[in-house]
């Protein structure tokens, strides 16, 4: 089981905390929590640094994933996460993000500069009404729709109630098991980060098209979607097993630099425009 950080103070006021100095450390960092919205002597970097240190010290794991209490999301969180050694965040909801796919965070949550941290948006939570156990059919339908394009379905579930929450978890796992992949944020994050680093170029060589791939990190199951009618040239030798099902080409183990040759059918060839 992967362990991730959930802050020290678990305060909804986290989004208003000052950034801090980056020198916060245990045991001197000790925020005083007055209520759910107020904590004194707290900072964003302190919440990240000290929680990570304590979990790593007592678990012998390396903590790279984070979610704040109450999904409280300060604008400076992306760069603070990267500065303190985190790689993955699950802080925003899919509705707020307008996507069920991971995405790379930006400095200050603006648009100018990306940071090397990926966000895994939250799809289903356990605290809004109706109670979680009464929402299983709707949750399964959401998961089915998200699965049509290989999206992500992150479930936030607190272990404070067995009863209907445990029943939901068992029913949801059983319902999506036939078509879903299960894993931790870190496991999926490593794969997604590797996928994000892939570079693709296409060159026309005679009647064929050559797809050139630069793959900096080993990446099992890389999937390419090619134009209609493109067929992988099986007369060529490739360094890894490759499967094609219609427009989808799956590389069982993508490595380093690869070149895939495709022969388009007449219907799949690009058409010349006539003025």
Folded structure, characterized:
By secondary structure, the protein is α+β, with helices and mostly antiparallel strands. The protein has two domains: 179 residues, Alpha-Beta Barrel (TIM Barrel); 66 residues. It is 24% helix and 26% strand. The chain has six helices and 15 strands. It has a four-stranded mixed β-sheet. The protein has a four-stranded antiparallel β-sheet with strand order 9-10-15-12. β7, α4 and β8 form a beta-alpha-beta unit. The longest helix has 16 residues.
In short:
The chain has about 280 residues and is an alpha+beta fold. The chain has helices at about 45-60, 75-85, 95, 135-145, 165-175, 185-195, and strands spanning about 30-35, 40, 65, 90, 105, 115-120, 120-125, 155, 200-205, 210-220, 220-225, 230, 240-245, 250, 255-265. About 25% of the residues lie in helices and about 25% in strands.
Task: Please give the structural blueprint.
Elements: E1 32-35, E2 38-40, H1 44-59, E3 65-66, H2 77-83, E4 88-89, H3 94-97, E5 103-106, E6 114-119, E7 122-124, H4 136-147, E8 154-155, H5 163-176, H6 185-196, E9 199-205, E10 208-219, E11 222-225, E12 230-232, E13 242-245, E14 248-251, E15 254-264
Parallel strand pairs: 3-4, 4-6, 7-8
Antiparallel strand pairs: 1-2, 5-6, 9-10, 10-15, 11-14, 12-15, 13-14
Helix pairs in contact: 4-5
Features:
TIM Barrel; 2 domains; 26% strand; four-stranded mixed beta sheet; single chain; 275 residues; alpha+beta; 15 strands
């Amino acid at each position: 089981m992967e362990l991730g950080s959930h802050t020290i103070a678990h305060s909804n006021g986290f989004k208003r905390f000052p950034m801090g100095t980056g020198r916060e450390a245990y045991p001197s960092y000790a925020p005083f929590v007055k209520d759910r919205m107020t904590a004194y002597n707290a900072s964003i970097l302190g919440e990240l640094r000290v929680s990570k240190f304590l979990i790593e010290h007592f678990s012998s794991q390396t903590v790279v994933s984070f979610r704040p209490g109450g999904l409280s999301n300060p604008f400076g969180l992306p760069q603070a996460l990267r500065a303190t050694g985190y790689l993955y965040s699950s802080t925003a909801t899919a509705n707020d993000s307008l996507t069920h796919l991971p995405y790379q965070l930006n400095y200050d949550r603006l648009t100018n500069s990306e940071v090397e941290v990926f966000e895994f948006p939250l799809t289903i939570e356990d605290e809004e009404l109706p109670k979680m156990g009464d929402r299983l059919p709707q949750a399964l339908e959401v998961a089915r729709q998200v699965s049509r394009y290989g999206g992500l379905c992150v479930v936030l579930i607190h272990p404070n109630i067995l009863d209907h929450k445990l029943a939901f978890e068992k029913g949801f796992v059983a319902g999506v098991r036939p078509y879903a992949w299960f894993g931790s944020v870190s496991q999926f994050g490593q794969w997604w980060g590797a996928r994000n680093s892939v570079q693709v170029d296409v060159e026309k060589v005679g009647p064929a098209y050559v797809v050139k791939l630069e793959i900096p990190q080993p990446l099992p199951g890389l999937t390419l979607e090619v134009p209609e009618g493109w067929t992988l040239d099986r007369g060529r030798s490739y360094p890894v097993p490759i499967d094609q099902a219609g427009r989808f080409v799956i590389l069982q183990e993508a490595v380093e630099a690869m070149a895939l040759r495709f022969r388009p059918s007449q219907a799949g060839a690009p058409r010349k425009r006539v003025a």
